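Re: the 218-residue chain
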Amino acid sequence: MGFIADFKANRVANKAKATFEHKHMRWEQDSGIFNKINEAFTLASQGKDAVENSLVNKPGECVLWHGQGSFHEAGKTPGHYEGSSQGVSIPIVGGIRYRVGAMRGTFVPGDEVQINKDLGDVYITTERLLFNGLTNSKEWAFDKWTGAISDSTESNYLFHVSNRQKTSGITFDAETGREFNRFLAQALHCAEDGIAAVLTELKTVSKELVEKEPKLEA
């Protein structure tokens, strides 16, 4: 095998190794997350919280997860005038003239966007999702849940509940967001089908994770 052929072969091998390492890192991350989820729901089945907290739990409610996030809510950017303006100078005391503005045009309201409101603690329980910040506290009850969306990085979330008009959500760093997403999915499953159903599914997931561990092809 010549130099060029060796170079190409090494490049292919290095690319395959990099792909394997990335996939295996993701696999290890997800395996660790599902182990934490399994531990949290095992504790919940015993009526225990999985994380320390100062929440006032509802009867039968258990805290499954805690993280830090940024709360955001639908709002509008500042509006503006489109058109011309003119200044009018009017006399006041002592011969001083004072300039006032007069707008001529159309007021255009701001765009509706998600506006960051607060940083704080995020909790997932067996019944709801909560945010507790310095100036804002929000609750998304699972029995009012109508849906949620996330961006491709699993770090930015919007939640929809039937008892709230404004769309709101939470932003995390990428690693925390990935873990949050998986805990949230199982918490919603729990709210619908119960803790026992979640533990049964987690056994299946754990088995599949072992079977699907990425391998570096020779």
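DSSP finds three helices and nine strands in the chain.
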